[in-house]
Description:
This protein folds into 4 domains: 2-39 and 190-333, 3-Layer(aba) Sandwich (Molybdenum Cofactor Biosythetic Enzyme, Chain A), CATH 3.40.980.10; 51-61 and 157-189, no CATH class; 69-151, Molybdopterin biosynthesis moeA protein, domain 3 (Beta Complex), CATH 2.170.190; 343-415, MoeA, C-terminal, domain IV (Beta-clip, Beta Barrel). It has 8 helices and 28 strands. The chain has helices spanning 3-9, 21-33, 172-180, 218-230, 244-254, 274-280, 315-333, 386-391; strands at 41-45, 58-59, 69-70, 74-77, 87-94, 108-112, 124-127, 131-134, 137-140, 150-151, 162-164, 185-189, 193-199, 203-204, 215-216, 233-240, 259-263, 284-287, 292-293, 299-303, 306-311, 343-348, 352-353, 359-369, 372-377, 394-398, 404-405, 410-415.
Amino acid sequence: MTGDLWRRGIGCQTLLEMLTFEEARGKIIEQLGKRKGPFATAVVSVWEALGLVLAEEVKTDREYPPFDRSTRDGYAVRAKEVAPDAKLKCVGEIKAGDTVTEPLAAGTCVQIMTGAAIPRGADAVVMIEHTQREGEVVRFERAAQPGQNIVPRGSEAAAGQTLLRPGMRLGYAELALAAQVGAAELQCARKPRVAILSTGDEVVPVEVAPGAFQIRNSNSVSLAAQVRIAGGEPVALGNAADRVEELGEKIERGLKEDVLVLSGGVSMGKYDLVEKVLKAMGAEFYFDAVAIRPGKPAVFGMCQGKPVFGLPGNPVSTMVTFELFVPPAIDLLNGAEARPLPLVEARLGEALSEKLGLAHFLPARVEWRGGAPEVKALKWQGSGDIAALAKANCFLVVPADRDKIAAGERVSVLLRKDVV
Ligand code: AMP
Ligand code: MG
């Protein structure tokens, strides 16, 4: 980077239309959704794959269940032989895991356990609770229906059937399914590497004692945590001073990763240089203002083929704007679909009023009260107040076109995925 290039870039401020947060998310999804794999993959043990995105098909190795399976502890019978008060001789017992070859003789029953194989000839299982046993004889209290308490062989899945597909996120149920069919190792997308660069002359590393007018770099810590939760691999690049050359060098380093997230330096101040430096490096911006508070100056662009997010530096702004905008990029670069925002509806517990024109994201707590979710905004001192957010389990979303909302009205709540 030459000083010349900087001088040419500096000064050409972009002025894009202010978007709603939904529109802004749409721009990100539009840009990154164009990228179709193949994405880099790695083979991962089923024990280690939680939260990764699958990059292969997982198929059944046999039928599921592999045999007609009892879903109850009871007696395997021929249904037509079991009317109220019927009595049958019990000729044996079948436990889960037993090899079953003998057919059930007419006029008899066999004691059977949950998960055991049904013997040929039997077509129903009567729950033990509906029987009485006297020696070898079992008395049945009610009639049996053919098929009751039996999951037929192959009814859950056929042999060779695809159960999991590329792009699916591996949660605990998906991992259990892979384990069930013997997929001990899984081809997964390599997590996108997300470079994190904070900016600001006042910012010192967390490990360093700040001077009277300095602050510790908490944003890099929250951003690294948010990247992990979103399914990315954080690469912390420290802090850049508010100087064109240093910012340029560190941004260049960040552009070696899959995504670059910056904090600070995107407002209108004289030393807010992030957008200008990115522009000089060839960035194209898709938004540089969003109708939200906190977080209005958030920026998204593509620079040298890499997605770049410039998030405002006030800690709560950084956290809110990350949650709104960065996860869809990480999803798409994982080869998955962009997940929707974790929004739910709740009853407003206390009336509130906010300024019109911007959607507000207020630190809040949602609790289950009287059989329904109720949400209350917490007291806070604005977008520097990390302590208020640490008490919150969600953000209460006040739409841009609402200034007053009465207690009892339905409102949207953006859940904090890490604590709920
Ligand atoms: P900026 O968006 O650069 O104008 O930053 C706004 C405010 O956010 C600064 O005045 C700091 O108080 C705070 N801030 C900026 N960067 C960080 C950081 N890395 N960690 C914690 N707070 C920060
Ligand atoms: Mg700054």
